[in-house]
Each structure stands twice: as C-alpha cells, then as structure tokens.
Amino acid sequence: MSSHFGPAFHVEKEKHSIAIELEGALLLSRNFFPYFLLIALEAGGPLRALLLLLSYPLSLLFKLILDENIALHMMIFISTAGLMVSDVKAVAKATLPRFFLQELRRSTYEVFAKCGGKKYVVTCLPRVMVEPILREYLDVDHVISTELRVFGGRCLGLVAPPGIMAGSRRFTALMEAHGTDRMIDFGIGAAFTAQPFLSLCLEQHHIPPEENSLPLPRNNYPKPLIFHDGRLVARPGPSDFAIILLWFPLGVLLAIFRILVGLILPSNLGLFGAAATGFRIRAQFPKACHISGPPQVTAAPEKSGTLYVCNHQTLLDPVIISTVLQRKISAVTYSLSRFSELVSPIPTVRLTRDRCKDGAMMRPLLDQGDLVVCPEGTTCREPYLLRFSPLFAEITDVVEPVAVRAYGTMFYGSTVRGHKWLDSFFFLMNPSPAYQLDFLEPVFGGQKSKYDVANHIQRLIGRRLGSSAPISRERTSIGCSRAMMVWIQESEILQ
Known about the structure:
It is a multi-pass membrane protein. Helix content is about 35%, strand content about 15%. By secondary structure, the protein is α/β, with parallel strands linked by helices. The chain has 2 domains: about 5-220, Rossmann fold, CATH 3.40.50.1000; about 265-480, no CATH class. Strands 8, 9, 10, 11, 12, 14, 15 and 16 form an 8-stranded mixed beta sheet that branches. The protein has a 5-stranded parallel beta sheet with strand order 3-2-1-6-7, sandwiched between helices. The protein has a two-stranded antiparallel sheet with strand order 4-5. The chain is elongated, with a radius of gyration of 26 Å. The N and C termini lie far apart (about 60 Å).
C-alpha cells in the first residue's frame, strides 16, 4: 500500500471509481467534537452544548483507554437525543458545510474530484450529519455511515444496527453498496487504524498521520458556499468553545453598554463612543471629498436628501453609515424585529415587498433627509453580492454607493434559524467588532433604466470589495456575484 499519490493520480480518471474515508483522509482532522458541538448548539441550545463540553474529558478518556467507538456513542447521545430529525438535518445542511469545506484536504480532494466514476465516502459519523454536504457539494454517490434510531420524527440518541460504521462493518456496507464483483479502482484511508474496506479497491493508499497537508483553498471549492447559518465564526474546538462560554457574560454586558452608548451620545460623538468600547470603524471617502468631514454630494434639484445604497452585512449597516457621517439617517428594511427598532439610534421603516407601496413610502423619507437602503434584501456573510432590487433607482437620479465589510471574531450578526431579534446583539458581543466602509463616487442615473443603474451599482460595490484583483465575468448558479473573490455578475436583473 502506498502512503502518497503516484503519477497515476495526476491524470484524468473520468470513469474510475473511488472509495475514501472521510475523517483523516478526505478531511484533515479526525476530531469529531466540533461537528457534534455545532449540532448540539444550533439544534439543541446552549445548555446541551455546555453538557457536551463538560463530557469531553470523559469521552477523551474513553478514546485513549477503552475504545473510540464508546466516546462516539456518548457524543451522539448528548448531541442528538430528543432532537427533531428535521432540526438536525437543517443544521447539517446550513451550518456544517462551511466547517467541513474548511477541513477538506487539498491533496486527497484533488484525487477524489478527478475520478468520474462511482464515488463512495466511508465515515463513522451519523448519516444525518454528513450526507447533505457530501451529496450537495462533493457529488458523492454512496455514503457509508452510521445510522441513528428514530422514533416519532425524533432522534433517540442511539445507534441503529449494525452499529458504529467502523472496521469490518465498513467492508460489508461498502460491498453491498458497490453491488458488483468488479473492484473499486481507488481507495484512500487514514493510516491510524486498519481499513478493511480498502481490500475492495485495486489501488490502495494510506494517509499517514504525520503528513502535513494543506486545506483546500476557498476558490477551489467544488461549489460556491454562498449561504450558511450558525452563530459561531470559528470552528469550535473544546478550548475555543470554553473561551466563548467564559466570554459570554462579559459579552452580554459589553453589548448592552455599546447599545446605551449609541442611544445616548449625540451623532458627532458616535465614533468616539464606538472606539471607547473597542468597536473599530474605518471609513474611506472619494478623493473629491474632504477627509475632515462627510462627503458632500450634489443631489437632484427636487430632492433634499442623499440616497445611500450599500451591500448588506448585518442590521447595523445603516447605523454605522449614520455614525460615520455624524448625522441621523433614516433606514428602510424588509424585516426588523420590535427589539431592533427599540435599540436603533436612527429612524427605521419597514418595507412591504410591494414595489408600488414601498416606492411611495421611500420618496417622502428622501424628501425629509438622507436615506439608506440595502437592495439585496437580506444579509449575506460570504464574499458574494446578492441580486440588487432596482427599486432604489426609481426613487432618485443620484445614488451614492457604499461598500460595507463587517468583521467579528466570535459571533455572526445574522442568522436564519435562530432568534433574528438578537442578530445585532450578538454582533455587539464580539470582543472587538469592526466595520470598514468605502464611500464611492456618486452615480447619476440620467436616462439609464433602473435595471442598468442597479447592475452598475452592484458592479461598483463588487469591484471595491474585490480590491485590486482582476474581475472575472463568470455567472454563478443562483444569480449571485462574488465580491471579495471578485466574481461579478454581469447579467441583467430580471424585470
């Protein structure tokens, strides 16, 4: 058996099949804990996640002294017992993919991707946790994994027969899934333990534990990772999550203090208040503007305010723009909780998603003063721009684009499955959150159609977020454009 990939792996294998172990081979690490913790936290709640963390020393002891499978049984029970299967699947589909993709081993994935025949992935992790990403992102044909007992749509936390998918069970399950006398062309497994399933493969390779492999670069992901959910920014190992728990009460107090500072201080002191609490805000204005003050834009004669159009990172985007410009600016949004309205230091107005009603609502606001709109309609954490609604181009002929970047080290300021009313609160709980704003030159629509204006604004913001890298005119599969990685969509916005 070989411990490295020979020349045969560097040519196209369009019809060759492959069987590969997930943990330690396709993934860099064999540490299951972060994935179970994410399931426990996102599907079960913080108390379940805390219980899993407290049990980690015991599971580590079982793994070192007795059997790794015992530790796996314990983590499965604590993280899934009593949860709805649908909730576990939702977390596996929306939260886990980003962390799995970050752990992809570059060398083995490149081999895996070259094989165009049947693809088999073998793992001891529960099917409900790994199948969504393996089928959606890696185009796996068969997942050989552990099955869980389910009753009434809920996980019992117990493993179904034949048990944890390890050892000879992998051999039997893979042989049944393959269903033919012909052997699988390539097999790759971790060299930690014996891998009986590799005996079904013509060419067998072991990944040694000491191999210093690199993760797969993001721009080489098999499919773009555009949407993902979950509160945690980093992959939560035991020590990382322990630090987060210790920080949590301090973070709550800090978030409350930051909210009070934003509500109490006048607009011209907002930047100083943010800096005093560790909130870093940086802004860059067009060259024509003076650094000493906010950008001065000549608006259309019939309008008294400036319309700022920005990409949408968190609910705080309009607040930060108002803070930088040192004046109150109204913001329109498609969905805003009552709590967010109460703690917002600027006026907020809800849109109805009815173009006629929303347009009629926005025009008076712009007549009264400046207005901020996020035409994506929803937040997007990843370096992509979602399609811009052209509604803002109907309101005024003068638009000032703003490229927005938000950074947090512990918590994301957006969620889908969680409590959205806590989005801004979680972002403010970060030890040192940061915002970078780039005010671009005003755009005069003139005689251009609203769709041309929306596309143009999107491209300008995308180019600024993409820094100085070359722009590739490449369509994505769902009509979004990648900004920080500079994939800018050039297609027309559908009318």
